[in-house]
C-alpha cells in the first residue's frame, strides 16, 4: 500500500498497484516529472510475460523534503529488469548511492558491495532526457537524491562558490552530464544511516529530511574538494538530444531495412561519437542492439495479432534465419513466438466478482 506520513511515502512489495504508485511518484520527482519517452520491462526468464508488479520483496521509501528536493531509499528486490527514459522539468541534479545491486544512468553499469565509496550523478538542464536502468531479481539497496537548481539557490541560499563548478557549467550551457563522484568516509557513513531510519508518523519524515539534507551537504563538500577531478564522461547539448530523438524515430521507421551508423550520422548531423554514446545514454543500447529491440517489440505485436505466420513475421522484419529470430525472441521476452501466440489465442477467464 501507499502510506502518507507527512511528506513521506512507502511503496511496498505487497502493494497490488505498484506501477500506479510509481506513476504518482513521478509527478513529485523533478528529474523525471517532465514525462516518460519510453519504458522497458524485461520479464524474468521463468515467465513468458511481464510480472504483475515491479517489487518482488522489500520496499522503497520516498521523502519529499520540499518542492524540488526528493530522496528515495530503496531496499528491495525487483521482479525484472527495468529501463525508463525520462525528462526533467527544470535544471536539476540526480545523485545515486548504490550499496548493492545493479543500477545506472545511461549505458554504464556498476555493482558494489556495502559501503559504496562513490556515487553516480546526472546533471540535467530544463527539458533534458535521462535514462535510468535497474537490474531485477537481485537485492537492490540504493539512495536516489533529486534536487533542483532553484531549491539549492532559493531555499538553501547557496551561492556560486558553494556549488560544484561542473554543475554550474553544465546548467549554464544547457548540457547534460553523467559521471561519478568519490565519497569520503564521512559521507559513506551518513548514507548508511538512511538505511537504519527510525521514527513514526511526522517524526519519521522529520528524521529523514534532516538526515538527507546532511547527506546532500556532505556530498557537495566532497565534490567541491575534488573540483574537476570527478568523472564526467558524457556531455550532450539540448540540440544533440533533439537530434538523437530524430535518430530514434528514423530507426523506428526503418525496421525492415536498418540503417548503419554512417547513414544515421549523415541523416541526423551528429558526429559518430555523439551518436554512439548518445544512443547508449538514451536507450542503454548500441544502435545495432536498439534496432534488434525495436524489431522484436514489433514482432511481439505481430505475433500476438495472429494475422501472419511466424515465418512471415520473421521475414517482414528482416531476420534472415527463422531459428535466429526464435532464439532472439525467446531471449528478449522469455518465451518463443509460438508460446506467445498460443497464450494470445487462449480465451481470457472472466473476472471473479465478490
Main attributes of the structure:
single chain; 354 residues; alpha+beta; Arc Repressor Mutant, subunit A; 2 domains; five-stranded antiparallel sheet; 12 helices; 28% strand
Could you explain the architecture of this structure?
- The protein has about 350 residues and is α+β, with helices and mostly antiparallel strands.
- The protein has two domains: about 1-235, no CATH class; about 240-345, Homeodomain-like (Arc Repressor Mutant, subunit A), CATH 1.10.10.
- Helix content is about 40%, strand content about 30%.
- The protein is built from twelve helices and 14 strands.
- The protein has helices spanning about 20-25, 150-155, 165-170, 185-195, 200-225, 240-250, 260-270, 270-285, 285-305, 310-315, 320-335, 335-345; strands at about 1-5, 10, 35-40, 55-65, 70-80, 80-85, 90-100, 100-105, 110, 120-125, 130-135, 140-150, 175-180, 230-235.
- The strands form two sheets. The protein has a nine-stranded antiparallel beta sheet, sandwiched between helices. It has a five-stranded antiparallel beta sheet with strand order 3-6-11-8-9, covered by helices on one side.
- A hairpin with a 2-residue loop joins strand 1 (about 1-5) and strand 2.
- Helix 6 crosses helix 8.
- The longest helix has 26 residues, at about 200-225.
- It is globular.
- The two termini are about 20 Å apart.
- Residues about 1-5, about 45-50 and about 105-115 have low confidence and may be disordered.
Amino acid at each position: 500500500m501507499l502510506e502518507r506520513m507527512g511528506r513521506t511515502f512507502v511503496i511496498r512489495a505487497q502493494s497490488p498497484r505498484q506501477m500506479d504508485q510509481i506513476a504518482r511518484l513521478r509527478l513529485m520527482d523533478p528529474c523525471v516529472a517532465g514525462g516518460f519517452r519510453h519504458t522497458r520491462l524485461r520479464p524474468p526468464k521463468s515467465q513468458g510475460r511481464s510480472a504483475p508488479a515491479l517489487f518482488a520483496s522489500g520496499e522503497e521509501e520516498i521523502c519529499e523534503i520540499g518542492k524540488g528536493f526528493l530522496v528515495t531509499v530503496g531496499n528491495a528486490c525487483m521482479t525484472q529488469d527495468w529501463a525508463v527514459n525520462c525528462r526533467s522539468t527544470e535544471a536539476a541534479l540526480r545523485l545515486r548511492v548504490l550499496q548493492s545491486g545493479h543500477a545506472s544512468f545511461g549505458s554504464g553499469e556498476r555493482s558494489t558491495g556495502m559501503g559504496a565509496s562513490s556515487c553516480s550523478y546526472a546533471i540535467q538542464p530544463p527539458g533534458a532526457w535521462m535514462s535510468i536502468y535497474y537490474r531485477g531479481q537481485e537485492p537492490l539497496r540504493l539512495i536516489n537524491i533529486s534536487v533542483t537548481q532553484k531549491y539549492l539557490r532559493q531555499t538553501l541560499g547557496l551561492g556560486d562558490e558553494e556549488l560544484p563548478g561542473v554543475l554550474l557549467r553544465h546548467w549554464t550551457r544547457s548540457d547534460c552530464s553523467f559521471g561519478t563522484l568519490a565519497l569520503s568516509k564521512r559521507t559513506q557513513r551518513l548514507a548508511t544511516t538512511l538505511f537504519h531510519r527510525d521514527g513514526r508518523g511526522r517524526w519519521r519524515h522529520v528524521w529523514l529530511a534532516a538526515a538527507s539534507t546532511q547527506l546532500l551537504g556532505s556530498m557537495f563538500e566532497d565534490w567541491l574538494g575534488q573540483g574537476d577531478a570527478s568523472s564526467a564522461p558524457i556531455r550532450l547539448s539540448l540540440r544533440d538530444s533533439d537530434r538523437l530523438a530524430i535518430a530514434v524515430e528514423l530507426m523506428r521507421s526503418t525496421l525492415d531495412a536498418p540503417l548503419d551508423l554512417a547513414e544515421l550520422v549523415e541523416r541526423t548531423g551528429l558526429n559518430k561519437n555523439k551518436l554512439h554514446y548518445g544512443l547508449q545514454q538514451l536507450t542503454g543500447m548500441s544502435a545495432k542492439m536498439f534496432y534488434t529491440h525495436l524489431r522484436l517489440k514489433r514482432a511481439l505485436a505481430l505475433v500476438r495479432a495472429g494475422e501472419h505466420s511466424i515465418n512471415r513475421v520473421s521475414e517482414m522484419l528482416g531476420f534472415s534465419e527463422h531459428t535466429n529470430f526464435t532464439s532472439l525472441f525467446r531471449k528478449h521476452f522469455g518465451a518463443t513466438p509460438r508460446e506467445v501466440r498460443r497464450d494470445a489465442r487462449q480465451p481470457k477467464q472472466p473476472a471473479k466478482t465478490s
